[in-house]
Amino acid sequence: MIEIGIAQLVAAASGVQAVIGNPARFYPVLVPEDPTCPCASYQVISEVPNYLLNGSSDLNQIRLQIDTWSGGLQNASYLSAKQAQAAIRAVLEGFTGTLPDGTRVAWIEVSSARDLYEQDARCYRTTTDYMIHFYAS
Fold it and tell me: What is the pLDDT of residue 134?
């Protein structure tokens, strides 16, 4: 699963650890209840196989959404959510190479980014979608 390799790459980056802790608070799909912030979560939004005229290609793509969070009544900070977003983006945008899990990545690009505020949770959130083009093993 490529998302595991991406998570390993992001969590190991010193710039990310400086913002969201070491070990990095980088969670699959759901952030735990009452988390230490800032933190981040990731989930696959779509997976699209690549087809050629004679069948499937080894090159595939996923759209991975990464959210950064800064919240709580006392700790909500737009700046810390944006710093976490920037640290993760610095690792992923334009990445090409091999992930820690052995997956070969052809290219990672940002497809969209937006800022949000979650009123019920009282937290700032950024959402960044990455298109990841990779070779199936």
Answer: 95
